[in-house]
TrEMBL record:
Keywords: Membrane. It is found in: Membrane. It comes from Ammoniphilus resinae. PROSITE patterns: PASTA. InterPro entries: Beta-lactam/transpept (IPR050515), Beta-lactam/transpept-like (IPR012338), PASTA_dom (IPR005543), PBP_dimer (IPR005311), PBP_dimer_sf (IPR036138), PCN-bd_Tpept (IPR001460). The keyword 4Fe-4S does not apply. This is Penicillin-binding protein 2B. SUPFAM superfamilies: beta-lactamase/transpeptidase-like, Penicillin binding protein dimerisation domain, Penicillin-binding protein 2x (pbp-2x), c-terminal domain. Gene3D superfamilies: 3.30.450.330, DD-peptidase/beta-lactamase superfamily, Penicillin-binding protein 2a (Domain 2). Residues 587-647, 650-706 form the PASTA domain. Belongs to the transpeptidase family.
Length: 726
């Protein structure tokens, strides 16, 4: 008996001892071997790491017009199962729900129902109704809410918006719904626009509630920087309007238009056709920015470079003569564009005006020679990228000099057998217009801090090299004006302004090295005013559907150039420089706008008066927080300077009759008023009467007519009154 008890006692003691050592070993194991992952698991229960997404920077035009911004968006979610028996907030009837959502989301009801049913079959608790319900805007989201459908919820997200739809699409690019930048400014400046992600670490109890003072670490997000482009919204609008009109009337393979300031390299407008709407990017048919990525044989617009080189080297004289028609010093011979008939023995000046291929073969091939001519091509920037700052630019490489045959060189002098891009030609001709300096074109004006508006980076004028002298530049400008007044560019003349430029017609190159029959690229590049160019406009139209008799595609190209150039000159208040009624129009005195920020309204008005300007106070604040135009801007005497003293403005609308479009835009930009423009010239009517209090977000339609139109209307009205009196 005692022996049995002892055995039991030893057995139980052994068991407990074993369990004790097992427990001790387990504790040792937990505290040493498993300590790290247990600590991580515990921390996961009491700590919560959260990321803070920054706001993507906004893209503006040069005057602060919003071109791309980030705002709220919503994704539609269908809840498929109840949380418990009492929960009724889930989709019970998939087909009925789909029928009601379909017209709002723009999706077939069958597809919505299938998404819901497939989600149920996969035992999901919820499903996103993509693509129609993915990142919808607030208006569409409100329509979904108004349906009051059980189980349909909205998840708040962010989305990139392009308020002007297709406007400037190839330059801006877009951000897709997954947040990836594609193309254009959005892609190449993604790092600046994206900002930096923030984060914080939060302590909570076992039930998941935040502990008092439970934030351990906090790193705020840094919002993306804002990008200000050199683009001028209103000039871009003129370009878009012109292209919309032309593409409705003519079928073309493609169109490129660039507007530049030849004195700074600023690109004021750039547009292509076909284009696309970045808000619905799935429908893109043309991904290529023709202006910088497409190469073409320029034809006669290239003669500007040959002419400038010949004048610079002293081998050109206006009065020297030659025999036009056919040039036989190379094989096959070169013929003038009128079938080799030519115009007999004519002066060099007449040869430029008639766009004679023979003349330019003489100048480039004979007088300059291959080496010198090729050197000038490189000096003018051909065969190199301009560095404009947009993705996808190509260099349009020149054929190596050592591989050029005599016929190649002779052909290149008049723009055949050489490839260029539109932006290369804009840079080269700008050098002729501005006095001889090749400038680097640029599309970005400034990068600013989004919160403070501080300028972090500003693009300054950048001179690449001097290519010709000012004397040569002046002579080329004078000659190119005669091309417009007396030569092939007569259809590009703009009343009141000295316009200089050159037409171009080039056959489309074929893959076999030849040329396609009856397929042409028509172009014109010109600048104004001729003696002091402020604007340069390049128009390139690829294979428009026009008859062969339409010389130089003038019915397609000239309306674009004239609409853009004339309206832009008036918008920029560039006074006509031609004689009108036998009197030279006097240029207004130029006055620099003083810096009036931070000053009391009464002081700002007084300082404006001393500068021979009219200070107009808007708002009821105690100091000027914004002024328009900004300090340093050149204005004519008695121009208005708007002095903003309040954040939220309500102001009476002025009478804009007789004002220019620029003056209207200046005022409306301050108030955030959208302007719809009808016609061109000076204001003759406005949709909102003068004196009406107008606020941000309202829309104003103004009607414009040129001075000649207004005079004609006045004459007609006077005649009608005389008839009534009789």
């Amino acid at each position: 008996m005692n022996k049995r008890i002892r055995i039991r006692t030893w057995f139980l003691g052994g068991v407990f001892t074993f369990l004790f050592f097992l427990l001790a070993f387990r504790l040792f194991w937990i505290q040493t071997v498993s300590a790290e992952w247990l600590k991580r698991d515990a921390q996961a229960q009491w700590e919560r790491n959260e990321t803070i997404q920054p706001k993507r920077g906004t893209i503006y035009d040069r005057n602060g017009e919003v071109l791309a911004y980030t705002a709220k968006a919503y994704t539609v979610i269908a809840k498929l199962k109840p949380w418990d028996k009492a929960d009724t907030s889930y989709v019970e009837n998939a087909f009925d729900t789909a029928q009601k959502l379909a017209p709002v989301l723009g999706m077939p009801a069958e597809r919505i129902a299938r998404l819901i049913e497939n989600g149920r079959d996969a035992s999901r608790t919820q499903v996103e109704l993509r693509p129609g319900g993915w990142k919808i805007n607030e208006d569409t989201a409100q329509r979904v809410v108004d349906l009051k459908l059980p189980g349909i919820f909205l998840y708040e997200e962010k989305k990139r918006y392009y308020p002007n739809d297709s406007f400037l699409s190839h330059i801006l690019g877009y951000v897709d719904l997954d947040g990836n930048p594609v193309m254009g400014i959005e892609k190449i400046f993604d790092e600046e626009l994206s900002g930096e992600i923030g984060e914080y670490k939060l302590l909570k109890d076992r039930k998941g509630f935040k502990l008092p003072d439970g934030i351990e670490t906090f790193k705020p997000a840094k919002d993306g920087k804002d990008i200000y482009l050199t683009i001028d919204y209103q000039i871009q609008n003129y370009v878009e309007d012109a292209l919309n009109t032309i593409t409705k009337e003519f079928n073309t393979k493609g169109i490129s238009v660039i507007v530049a300031d030849p004195n700074t390299g600023d690109i004021l407008a750039m547009a292509n056709r076909p284009h696309f709407n970045p808000n619905s990017y799935r429908n893109i048919s043309n991904w290529t920015n023709f202006s910088i990525s497409s190469t073409f044989e320029p034809g006669s617009t290239f003669k500007i470079v040959t002419l400038a080189a010949a004048i610079e080297e002293g081998v050109y004289s206006n009065d020297e003569t030659y025999h036009s028609g056919t040039y036989r010093k190379v094989t096959p011979p070169i013929k003038d564009h009128n079938g080799g008939q030519g115009w007999g023995t004519i002066s060099y000046l007449r040869g430029v005006q008639e766009s004679s291929n023979v003349l330019f073969a003489i100048l480039g091939y004979e007088r300059l020679g291959k080496d010198k001519f090729y050197d000038y091509l490189e000096k003018f920037g051909f065969g190199q990228m301009t560095g404009i700052g947009l993705p996808g630019e190509v260099a349009a490489s020149l054929k190596p000099k050592g591989l050029l045959y005599p016929r190649d060189v002779a052909s290149m002098t008049f723009g055949q057998g050489v490839a260029v891009t539109a932006i290369q030609q804009v840079a080269a001709v700008s050098a002729v217009a501005n006095g001889g300096e090749l400038l680097k074109p640029h599309i970005v004006k400034e990068i600013r801090a989004s919160q403070t508006g501080e300028i972090l980076q500003r693009t300054e004028k950048e001179t690449v090299r001097r290519v010709v002298s000012e004397k040569t530049s002046t002579m080329v400008r004078d000659i190119l004006e005669t091309v417009v007044t007396e030569g092939t560019g007569r259809y590009y003349n703009i009343p009141g302004y000295h316009v200089a430029g050159k037409t171009g017609t080039a056959q489309v190159a074929a893959m076999d090295g030849g040329y396609k029959a009856n397929k042409y690229i028509y172009s014109f590049i010109g600048f104004a005013p001729k003696d002091k160019p402020e604007l340069l406009v390049s128009v390139v139209v690829d294979q428009p559907d026009v008859p062969d008799s339409n010389f130089g595609g003038r019915d397609v190209v000239s309306p674009i150039f004239k609409h853009v150039m004339q309206n832009s000159l008036q918008y920029l208040k560039i006074s006509p420089d031609l004689k009108v009624d036998n009197m030279k129009i006097a240029k207004p005195e130029s006055i620099q706008v003083p810096d009036l920020l931070g000053k009391p309204p009464s002081v700002a008005v007084e300082l404006s008066g001393k500068a021979n300007l009219q200070g107009k106070v808007l708002g009821d604040g105690t100091s000027v927080i914004q002024q328009y135009p900004t300090s340093g801007t050149s204005l004519s005497k008695d121009s208005v300077v708007y002095l903003i003293t309040s954040e939220h403005l309500e102001a009476p609308l002025p009478d804009f009759t007789g004002k220019t479009l620029r003056e209207v835009m200046e005022f409306c930009t301050l108030l955030g008023v959208k302007v719809n423009v009808l016609g061109e010239g000076f204001v003759v009517g406005q949709s909102i009467p003068a004196g009406t209090i107008i606020t941000k977000g309202e829309k104003l339609t103004i009607t414009l007519h040129t001075k000649s139109d207004v005079d004609e209307l006045n004459v007609e009205e006077q005649d009608l009154q005389e008839e009534i009196q009789e």
